[in-house]
Amino acid sequence: MKYRIQLACFAVICLLINCTPKTEIQATEPAKETPKQVLIPAIQEAEIEDLLIESAGNEKRGLKEIGEFPIGGAVDIMKVLEDEKLRAITIRNFNSITSTNDMKMYSILPKKNQYTWAKIDSLVAFSKRNNQRLFGHTLLWHHGLPKWIEEEAATKGKAWTERFLQEYIYRVVSRYRGEIAAWDVVNEAFESGGGAYRETFWYKTLGKGYIAKAFHVAHRADPDADLFYNDFNIEQDTAKLHAVLQMVEELKAEGTPITGLGFQMHIRMDTSDEAIAYALQQAAKTGLKIHISELDIIFNKHNDSEGGGEQVIKVLSPTLLQAQADKYENLVKMYRKYIPKEQQYGITFWDFTDRDTWVRPFFKILDWPTIFNEQLERKPAYYGFVKGLAEEL
Ligand code: XIL
Question: In the annotation, is 188 catalytic?
């Protein structure tokens, strides 16, 4: 109850913050930022401990204590702050967190000149309190690009677009210098299948050079941040994998400050383990840090487009749940086996509960792709993952 009252107050503060006038985009030096606004309620450490014990059946160890590399969860920070059980799971299991949507351009800058920081500031505070690495996702993505940007670019052209891209990245990354450890600088720059560059707004306006530019400006804004290229299907589509690896080599050869490669790893039960093993081995050769950045394992079929799901499995059985556990276990073992320790940036789950998974609304199917069920209890998949982390290879 106490949390609810605190949260209500913070929600009101949040609304007020979002209604205050915003600073203009500056052509050169970013304007002085507003002080950071934190939405997180003060929870005493003892209370957190109670929540952990309550929610996790007295088992004190979480995934983060078992692995030798960071284990992450992608979260909606408001949901985490409102939901005690979800919060306890997040704190107990993850030493890295990513935001599902709050660091995307449509959340940070939905309208011209209206930078919105409150939720990111909360993420920063939450991750600090809980000793979690904060992973930034994502600076440039085609999906959900705010409409006003395309409209502005249509009248102001290429030079404006290039300047905007640089200002946006500089402003966001420098504001959180030293607080956000790493960024997915560019997300999904290649087509879903095959090896072609995706014809995004950025590509069409600036050519493929937008990718290198984005990395350079992010590096200037925070020289210590790890900078990732992130994509999906590269664990299973060899043509796409090779195209991405070639881009990585080109970027490195040109001196672009890329330090990591993210495999989203939204896989299905029928995704070939051999293909994944091959992809991880090839990726390791780049010498980059390798992040499994958005892990989930889907039972049904989907075609990578919004609404493109096909409900094949209607009911879960213990056999299916066990098969999913084995798939999770094997994936972790492959990651440990094929990615050298110094390149293991970690494994991050996307949403991590079947209640909250993005797969259901996005592909419009009922699926169970994560390690916690609808009641936020651990599934066999959770224990499969633990075995993958703990067992000898
Ligand atoms: C998804 C979010 O989880 C959804 O809530 C949102 O509606 C769409 O984006 N690849 C990515 C993530 O890089 O940003 C996507 O997240 C999932 C696929």
Answer: yes
Q: Is 162 exposed, middle or buried (0-12, 13-18, 19+ CB in 10 A)?
A: middle
CATH number of 2-390: 3.20.20.80
Cβ atoms of 281 and 311 within 8 Å: the answer is: no
Residues 388 and 329 sit within 8 Å (Cβ to Cβ): yes
pLDDT digits (tens, 9 = 90+) for 46-65: 443 444 444 444 455 789 98
Residue among 84, 179, 235, 294 flagged as catalytic: 294
167 has catalytic annotation: no
Tens of pLDDT along 324-372? 999 999 999 999 999 999 999 999 999 999 999 999 999 999 999 999 9
CA pair distance 120, 44, nearest whole angstrom: 22
Give tens-digit pLDDT for 86-124. Answer: 999 999 999 999 999 999 999 999 999 999 999 999 999
Q: Which of 294, 303, 364 to mutate to test the pocket of ligand 1 (most atoms within 8 A of CB)?
A: 294
- CA dist 308 and 120 (Å) reads 31
Using the mean position of ligand 1's atoms as its centre, give its distance from the Cα of residue 1 in Å.
Answer: 32
Give ligand 1 pocket residues (Cβ under 6 A): 100-101, 187, 264, 294, 358, 362
| For the chain, domain boundaries | 2-390
C-alpha 358 – ligand 1 centre gap (Å): 7
